[in-house]
Amino acid sequence: MDLASRLSGRSVLVTGASSGLGAHFATIAARSGARVAVAARRHDLLEGLLAELSEAGAAEAMAVELDVTSEESIEACCDTVFQAFGDLNVLVNNAGIATEGWAIDQSATDFDNVMGVNVRGVWLTAVAVARRWRDAKAAGTVINIASILGDRVATGVAPYAVSKAGVIQMTKALALEWARNGIRVNAIAPGYFATDINADFFDSDAGQGMMKRIPMRRIGNLEELDGVFLLLATDASSFMTGGVIPVDGGHLVSSL
Ligand SMILES: NC(=O)c1ccc[n+]([C@@H]2O[C@H](COP(=O)([O-])OP(=O)(O)OC[C@H]3O[C@@H](n4cnc5c(N)ncnc54)[C@H](OP(=O)(O)O)[C@@H]3O)[C@@H](O)[C@H]2O)c1
Predict the structure, then answer these.
(1) 0.85 cut: is pTM over it?
(2) Which of 26, 152, 179, 245 ranks highest by number of CB atoms within 10 Å?
(3) Which residues is 220 bridged to in the sheet?
(4) Looking at the annotation, which residues are catalytic?
(5) Architecture of domain 4-248
């Protein structure tokens, strides 16, 4: 059985699905025939994505407004999705933001904003979903979207790097606690992919210089995330939990 067909009829919630990687993960799930809920703050973009998801083959597609900095919004989103689908099999914890600038110039608010979305938001969403799985005695799979910057570092992105290190450690800690409940927690650590989060960077001198330091000498294409996503979203990874998989053209093994 191929990986995509293992997701057919399963239900998937993707946070931060209004653009970039999140919209792409939703599309992979749709192509596999899953029921897909896309969540983010920009509801108009989510509504626009619904037709594409249906066309791609989603068994069902729904858009839910979500702000992961608000516990109330996360609870409301989970209630809506569990009620509409009757269950949920996969949570893709993808919503994230970045700040740029030297650490010494970052304000407390800059730092709090990144932690609020990338760490607290990922934590609260995982816990809200896992509580529902535990109460229903249901199994489930969480895929956290970390970054290679949760492992290696770069200048100008310190709070982001700290937050993604938090996501990696959170993935391991939650995997350890939830394995007994049949809940698996793994992470994808992407290298560089062109999206709104880094739109101007790759055109800059710094961006061009960075590209030369990637062993494969290029940034990734979104399609190059499909395999790892389907592996972690399906029971093809049934004995994997607490894992962090880089998809980065070899960036993490380079010391440059
Ligand atoms: N692109 C890369 O090279 C790369 C590399 C490594 C890791 N990542 C990670 O991949 C994830 C997606 O990033 P991306 O590159 O696709 O960037 P993006 O296009 O800017 O997408 C970020 C998504 O997060 C959502 N979001 C932001 N704040 C939110 C909030 N408070 N509540 C709910 N949703 C929120 C945004 O939706 P709304 O604004 O509509 O809410 C948007 O859909 C992030 O976690 C990022 O750190 C990206």
Answers:
(1) yes
(2) 26
(3) 193
(4) 160
(5) 3-Layer(aba) Sandwich (3.40)
